[in-house]
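forwarding from the other thread:

> can someone predict this with FE2/S2 (inorganic) cluster?

sure thing
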Amino acid sequence: MIRLKINGTSRQYEGDPDMPLLWFLRDNLELTGTKYGCGMGLCGSCTVHVDGKAARACVTPMKSIEGKNVLTIEGLSAKGDHPLQRAWKQCAVAQCGYCQPGQIMQAASLLKEKPKPTDADIEAAMQGNICRCGTYERIRKAVKIAAGVQA
Amino acid sequence: MSVTVLSRRGFLDTIFSAGALVLSAPLVSEAASKADAAAWHPSVYLGIETDGTVLIVSHRSEMGTGIRSVLPMLLADELDADWKRVKVEQAIGDTRYGSQNTDGSCSIRDFYDAIREAGASARLMLERAAASKWNVPVGECQVKLHQVVHEKSGKKAGLGELVKLASTQQAPKAAELKFKSPADYRYIGKDTPMIDADDIVTGKGQFGYDAKMPGMLIASIERPPVYGSSVAKVDDTEARKVAGVAQTVTLDKFQPPQMFKQLGGVAVLANSTWAAMQARKKLKVEWTASPNAEYESGAYKSKLAEAARKPQKVVRKVGDVDAALAGAAKTHEAEYYVPLLSHAPMEPPAAVAEFKDGKVVTWAATQNPQAVQEAVSEALGIKKEDVTCHVTLLGGGFGRKSKPDYVVEAALLSKKAGKPVKVVWTREDDIRFDYYHAVAAMYMKAGLDASGKTTGWLQRSVFPTIGSTFNADARYGQEFEMGMGWMDVPFDIPNHRAENGPAQNHVRIGWMRSVANIYHAFAVHSFVDELAHLAGKDPVQYLLSTLGPDRKITIPPEGDLKYWNNTMPQEKYPVDTARLRRVIEIAAEKSGWANKKPGNGRALGIAAHRSFLSYIAAVVEIEMGSDGKIRIPRVDFAVDCGTILHPDRVKSQFEGAGVFGASIARMGEITAANGQIQQSNFHNYPVARMNEAPRETHVHIVPSTDLPAGVGEPGVPPIPPAICNAIYRATGKRVRELPLKRHGLA
Ligand code: FES
Ligand code: FES
């Protein structure tokens, strides 16, 4: 039995310990805001926080997160008003929207580490997150607005 | 034809309540072109509930363009409804909505009139209802932000209050309608937020991958690695031992033509995604032989290129090219190549379906729910009306999701399993089993006179046609493919011939964002740039002079081919070189072309292309990094798409097109060996990331009252040639084969 916390709630898992967290979130808990895009840690669609740090849920086996705190897009803010979520709407970042929960979670982890990121910081942190619709320029702008640095 | 009040509305009953005022506005052009439309004209639907809620049916799929918001916004604006009290209902697939195929950049173009008519009719009916209620002239009543107002008396009534009275009226005739003046729009042109914006940033948006049905099984399918082969033998012993696996199912081989039939293979059905995917890896399948097993990209490329060097079928002819080339002061020839490409939408294909009592209900990420109805009904031998297709949000589409083979899989598996089944494609499935964007080879030859003017121009393309998906014997480019930047090269060259050669497909070929324009534009706009340098002229000046005087070109039919023009009459949407010239001038000016001379590994490149009836010029600035790889600091688009409704969504489509085009130019390449696709995920089929995308994209929209034209696709074609033209100016290196990664440039 694996115990862990997801968005502050205690959860238990019994099953294949190699199953990635992604499917526990999506299939077992119906937290479908965390997306599948590649299953190989290549695209960032499945980004969540594990103990406060961005992690790719698709390559995070359940056995590796016993006792940890997982935060998903559903738990990022109570009312959908995290500064990044607000900035995302202000800049109308989303096109299809599929990659955006992962983008926002990645950016949230960046801002935790670097509250005032430079362009280079943003690029380095966000490079692992693909947006096939091509919203990168607005993502960069929204991160800066949320961080209160010149956009 | 005018709007109708619907009292008995059958298929719309789940959307509107009994007391609502429901209007349908017919799609005139479609009704006229369809013989079976007499019974029920395909229409746009609008309802006003007695509580004042305005319900608008969105019959187009949302894949990122904003169409699910913008079309309803236009209707709400014409009615002068309060956007906060408007609810958008996503339509199921039904021919009574007209075409729902969200593809070809035509949603606004095709539905603009009907939507405005629906809004204006509802507005007039409510005003008439108020006038009769208050006993005042109807001309003194006006809908203002969700209520009817009679200024003189100060009387007001909410829309909901008037519904009952309005429902008893005849719908107005078309001639009686007055349309809002654009100056009075509240939402249109104002960058009003998208209706799904909140759901998306909170993770609540429901995509195909998120769809569920009670008691469903999840399926992962092992498909034939070579196109055209099928299951010879399967050993599923190990797969069935995996905890959570319910059963395996062998799917039949399809009978050509491919259409939207499923590919066959072996499916593992399990109670979780992980179990299905893991167990699938434990299947031992032997496959039958396929004639496509010899397909190898290198050899295939040589074949296409060879064919392009020989005379082929003529698709456009002006003057005498052979004589012009023979008599030219200088001639120049070049060969171009664009490889197979995969759509790779962020969300791989997924759908859930239930077969029960001879009927199918499905929730699918699809661009075309009516194609789902057709393909599923054919595969299961049931009636089209017995397939109900609900449309989820689409995590990207780019043309992939208008081909519903994955929904067919789900429906077939549900029938076999006796339970709802969700089919989820892995990224590997998506990249290895796509309907690929065609690989193409182009041969170009031109003759210049002593002054550098182009006097003769010959162009040949050879590629496997999308037609092969629908007719296994198709070898030549179809009318629509020839109409995409090939029959309609708008240059003022007295002797001009376009040709197209045959090719056989060895994989499924499909349409991807901007389709044949991608390779045609790459060859045409790279080549004209080559000629500019050959003539010693500035590329923008040369482009403008080659475009020639402002005129409207009528493209004549050639042999069995008519000029496609996006299915629109040329009188209504002519090839207008003045509009192309204007965007070239704007893009040059806004990018600072005249002042930014190439130097220090930086340079600008230009390309301008008409597609989907829109006129687009792109100036791309590139910079050579110390690693020898390019960066793209800036793109300037000048766009003339006719009337536009939502400037910000237009801009975002062009920003996205810049990135999509950068992916094609830099790294897009699918290859085959022994008939098998060699790429499988983003490590070997990369797409542009933040650091590889254009850093800044400036979209300059030409104000226009012309008829609305395409927005989602036409930004893509000019990008790859503009990038390569910039590379030439920065480095002197001419790239004629994509992608740049092959040349160490990306
Ligand atoms: S799905 Fe996890 S990184 Fe792509
Ligand atoms: S918004 Fe579509 S993939 Fe990012």
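Residues 107-134 of chain B form the longest helix (28 residues). thats all i got for now
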